[in-house]
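G., the chain you wanted modeled:
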Amino acid sequence: MHAFGDGPPQRREFVYIVIFVVVIAFGGFVWNLYGGRETPRISAEPGAYKILPPVGAPDAPDLAEENALYSALEGQADTAAVAPRPGPEAAQADAQERPLGGAPQLGQAPRFVSDGPYVAQVAALQSEAAVEPAWTRLASRAPGLFQNARLDVERADLGARGTYYRVRAGYFADRENAGRFCDRIKQMGQDCIVVAR
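Predicted structure as tokens:
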């Protein structure tokens, strides 16, 4: 066994050159990393990144409802406490715009008929068992509005997204009356879309 200093002189010189190159390369790396030039920085504009509207404003989020939703998704709460919302297909529906002055102005009350061509979809749930509790919860929040409404459930198979049970209130003779119903539902903070049967 030979010590490091033993051996032919050519081999020792080669080892010294390799060590010297490694030390120089490492020094250059450290110099570029910590010294030399300064890394450019992009500063964010001063102020809050996202400003929430004041509590009670028409666009203010319902944080209690949102927290209940996340708790239910994590299995920490009863899903019956979570207000239903329309499913993925609701994004394809035409959104009704609010007037610039804030909350929509509500006209006369919607009129129901016994078997009309229009319904108002108020939720899309992935559990058929959750339909009745969701309907009862919504109806209890606005008993006068739901007094003459009938529950209409449509099963929708959305392929990879799963099967949804569309919870709909009916029935309406025309799109205008269904829209009036949806306007009142939206004022309760619940999504709603008008759908032809």
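The domain at 82-96+109-196 is CATH 3.30.70.1070 (Alpha-Beta Plaits).

Shout if anything looks off.
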